[in-house]
Write a structure and sequence with these properties.
By secondary structure, the chain is mainly α. The protein has a domain at 20-196 and 311-335. It is 74% helix and 1% strand. It has helices at residues 3-35, 39-47, 53-56, 58-70, 72-81, 83-102, 109-139, 159-183, 186-218, 227-248, 251-273, 297-324; strands at residues 276-278, 288-289. Strands 1-2 form a two-stranded antiparallel ribbon. The radius of gyration is 20 Å and the shape is globular.
């Protein structure tokens, strides 16, 4: 494996880790205003991610930084061509972070309600737009011979991308519902389980639509080989097994299967892309690949040495955080900080 392939794989792992971890954050942010019937219940739900959400966002920062350093041309084309949706994602993440920090600073229900809906919007938009963005990367967008995006915003709102956005939205929301049931007790847990059962139906229908549309619009089964399609089918199989686990009431196994489903659907993106990093719908010769979009060998080698030291430390710290705060949130006043 050369360094170009290594860094493509590492970036894929970083984005996949981000979607698994931040995915349930998005789901919790969306559902807390729907499952929580009063301020105490909403605070219980938000406290399930209180120790994790800002650490989970580190995966996105790392993925973006790695993309910039390892594949600068990919970064330049992606962030210039997808400027508006990525800008909306950034604004939404800032809005959500600020709302999480300030929601409980004032003992006023109107204040908390406003910031609660800000958390809802700041979670819903990224959950939708990440699916739209990556579906367009896989399907292909207008890129010319100088590696410049030549389309507009409306090019990104095609049927395949919109269906993928619905899949990511429902998928992350289901992931969040299962996480809430794993981390809470009593009425909140039972309501989260009911939401999870309903969301499963929405996810399976959207995932089936994505699988069909990937053949019709996306080319996953034709232009780029079968591997991405196989991963999508495996993801559907995991979703089917998840239905029986949800019925059995095992929160831990349900969350594990939900995470595996996110991993499979995310992996399908990068397996389908390889060796491309962005596909040109204008001409195959204009595709950005792990070679023509990459930094020089010295930069990749230096980054590899740094990653060899820092990545294990980050994983150990985050693993310790999840282990330390693994107990369910019961709703005691001393537990409620959000």
């Amino acid at each position: 494996m050369n360094l170009n392939i290594l860094w493509f794989v590492l970036i894929g792992i970083l984005y996949t880790g981000y979607f698994v971890l931040e995915g349930f954050d998005f789901g919790v942010g969306i559902l807390h205003v729907l499952i929580g019937k009063d301020d105490t219940q909403r605070r219980v739900i938000l406290n399930t991610i209180g120790s994790y959400w800002d650490g989970n966002e580190v995966w996105l920062i790392s993925a973006g930084g790695a993309t910039f350093a390892a594949f600068p041309q990919w970064y330049a084309t992606l962030f210039s061509g997808f400027y508006l949706p990525l800008f909306l994602i950034l604004i939404a993440l800032i809005l959500r972070g600020a709302a999480l920090e300030f929601r409980s600073r004032v003992e006023n229900l109107a204040w908390r309600r406003i910031f609660g809906w800000a958390i809802f919007v700041g979670s819903l938009l990224p959950a939708l737009l990440w699916g739209v963005a990556f579906a367009n990367i896989v399907r292909g967008v207008p890129i010319d011979a100088s590696m410049q995006y030549t389309g507009g915003f409306w090019n990104l709102l095609n049927p395949f991308a919109l269906i993928a956005g619905v899949v990511s939205l429902f998928g992350f929301t289901l992931h969040g519902a299962i996480f809430i049931s794993l981390r809470t007790t009593g009425e909140v847990r039972e309501r989260a389980k009911r939401y999870a059962n309903g969301l499963w139906i929405a996810v399976i229908l959207a995932a089936l639509a994505l699988t069909v549309s990937s053949y019709t619009f996306g080319g996953i089964f034709t232009g780029f080989g079968l591997n991405g399609g196989i991963l999508l089918l495996l993801g559907l199989a995991v979703l089917i097994v998840l239905r029986f686990v949800l019925a059995g009431g095992s929160d831990g196994w349900a969350f594990a299967l939900s995470a595996i489903g996110v991993i499979l659907f995310s992996s399908a993106i990068f397996v389908t892309l390889f060796p491309n990093v962005m596909v040109s719908s204008t001409a195959a010769a204009n595709n950005l690949t792990i070679y023509n979009a990459a930094s020089g060998p010295y930069t990749l080698a230096l980054m590899s040495k740094i990653a060899l030291v820092l990545v294990p430390l980050v994983l150990l710290y985050q693993g310790w955080t999840y282990w330390t705060f693994r107990k369910r949130v019961s709703g005691k006043p001393e537990e409620l900080h959000y």
